[in-house]
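seq:
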Amino acid sequence: MVENKNQTDNNKVNKTQQNDMPKNTAKKKVVMKQFTIDMSSKNLMSKGILYILLGLLFLPLLVSLFTSNPDNEISISTLVKDIRDEKISSVKVAGDELRVTYSDSTEKVALKEEGQDLVSILNAANIDLAATDLEVKSVGLGQLLWELLLSFLPVILMIGVFLFIFKA
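struct:
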């Protein structure tokens, strides 16, 4: 019986020693992530189309950033005043845009309203039409299609992006 009691005492001591030891003595597993690139034609095609759509979505923004020059634009009243002061050598009318060439060869742009014509504006200001060279250009089909494409392209691209997202 004494032996039995000594064994239980030894078991208790062993258990307390085991409890005092850190539990995480086992080796930790190292998990390595692997980076792979799927070069299948299907994956490249879908991502390529996505990148092209995103690029085309921002195309009008990039075009407007690089082509608009606020120093290059003048108002109709400035145009009329400059024609009256004989600072302008020629005016080219292309749709709603008036491309103005000054005597010092600088070029500026004025925008008129859609229903207005430059002749009536100059007649209302009592300016002789012979005072400046007036040239009217017709808006070509290519320019009209390009303007329509730039107008509707963001909408079409957004619809395409939403369809691509919902499909995935």
